[in-house]
# Entry
Amino acid sequence: MKIAVLVGGTGGARFLHGVVTAFPQADISAIVNTSNDVTVHGLRVCPDLDTAMYLLGGAVDFKHPNTHPDATQTVQAELSRYGAEASWYPLADREIATNLIRTQSLDAGYSLSEVTDALCDRWLASEGERVNVHLLPMTNARCETHVVVDTETGPRAVHVQQWRHKNGAQTAPRSLVQIGLDTAEPTPTVIDAITDADFVLISPGSPAFSIATILAMPRLHAALVATKATVVGIAPVIADAADGEHATPHGVMRSGLQALGVSATAEAIGRHYGGRGEGGVLDFWLISMDDSADIAGVVTVSGDVEMATPADAAVLARAAIDAASGQA
Amino acid sequence: MKIAVLVGGTGGARFLHGVVTAFPQADISAIVNTSNDVTVHGLRVCPDLDTAMYLLGGAVDFKHPNTHPDATQTVQAELSRYGAEASWYPLADREIATNLIRTQSLDAGYSLSEVTDALCDRWLASEGERVNVHLLPMTNARCETHVVVDTETGPRAVHVQQWRHKNGAQTAPRSLVQIGLDTAEPTPTVIDAITDADFVLISPGSPAFSIATILAMPRLHAALVATKATVVGIAPVIADAADGEHATPHGVMRSGLQALGVSATAEAIGRHYGGRGEGGVLDFWLISMDDSADIAGVVTVSGDVEMATPADAAVLARAAIDAASGQA
# Structure
């Protein structure tokens, strides 16, 4: 069985962990968002790729995939003492090694796909065994999301990471500006993964900051429309995000939806992705049991979409495949 | 009083510390060797500049200036786990911050002189007080010393840092190859520092790996010949280096001298630098009390050239200036 998963952020990484756990025999490709990537201190940082890699590789905790369990920040502290501009970006020492290798390899002319393969050789393979997933950056082109926020001197566009980590996502963005995405092309491997899949799963990552950017590439969108695979989206759980908690993943997700003009409900997000018969990408839309959604051309199914534990994520992954197989 | 000091390696950094301590009112310029610089993991590393900066800034111990007192190597350990090629080069986490800032600034088009000034702003200035020394890279051009060693497949040139840290300086070099030094120009500030000095002091750094590379630049050499300053060289203490201790600074110094065809004695090294009247650079040559040296056109003076403590280094610095002032 071939499964392609669209992945971004912590929700995406957790869900991918569930897919890998639930279907150990499957041939799984993860198409990972790169629009959150950023260059800080001259280092190319790929948060969504690395969160997935570290989580699947057992280097971080399922509950806190953005933080190494015993992460030191010695380099970061020194950078701050030098007064380095981007010291607002949280870099664990261990991550710096990953970023050094990536930056050096990119500078040497390797593609992000090739570099990702090389990094995953360490985390996803050991003693002949390999985690049954291939992490694919959605594109080898350089893409970055900027958010437009109001300041005292008028609207200003800042990198999404600067907004999240320097501003603490306190200022609601007016709009999102995608740098590089209009000319970015998905890699051939990404297109093949979608075309050859039996199932395509759209993870419950942030719709604005993770999934919409993957879907924004015309050739990738077209491949999703054309694939023989059944496409199942999983609604991100957002109902429990209190309005005030800007800096939480849910707060950030909500701000992003607001900037897109999409309500923070499963129905609105599902309609934003759209049904395959209606120019969108969904066949099925998996939402919370106490929720409802009416989306043209899409079969809505319900399940437990919370992922507090790895076991939860595996159950959710199985529910998505069951729905698509008509076994829900 | 204006003093220019030619600096390289740990001996050079310790001696410079002594000059700064002994002459707190002097205007001191340190002309620092850059031919030990190396790029590892995409980071530009300047060992001689940084050893001097850290030692003067109180960040490292006088006895072990190459090691931060509580240095962690988390990034280094991760790089090794990735199998990164240059993981033989010892990088403390704190140094990585320095190297990141330097590399990023060089990539942005700043010169090494400008970058060094910016880095020293942190270490050599605090609350309006500034350590009375200006650290000057000898050139802004990129220079690197390679050593030619015999291998099973014939002679091979490797970077001096690779030879020191990967090979442990075990294989005696046949010869030294200087990359970039033939076209390197000293900066105008370096030439001014020599021309305007009352005293030029040649520190007891490694003759082959630190001092000879500074002297190899024709315009710098000419400025030393022409300056109105009195030039005093301090012989590196090498008599106590047992032949077998390749990896020690003295062992490395001895191997370098051997590659240059210079005996490891104060007299031979002094003759290698030469008297100012004879096309060389020395007016005075300060050697160990139990030693002797006969060098054409050079006044030999003796003193305690060991530098076990900061106080020793200050005494040695004063002895050098006293000799040049006719007060020895």
Observations:
- The two ends of chain B are 18 Å apart (CA to CA).
- Chain B has a mean pLDDT of 93.
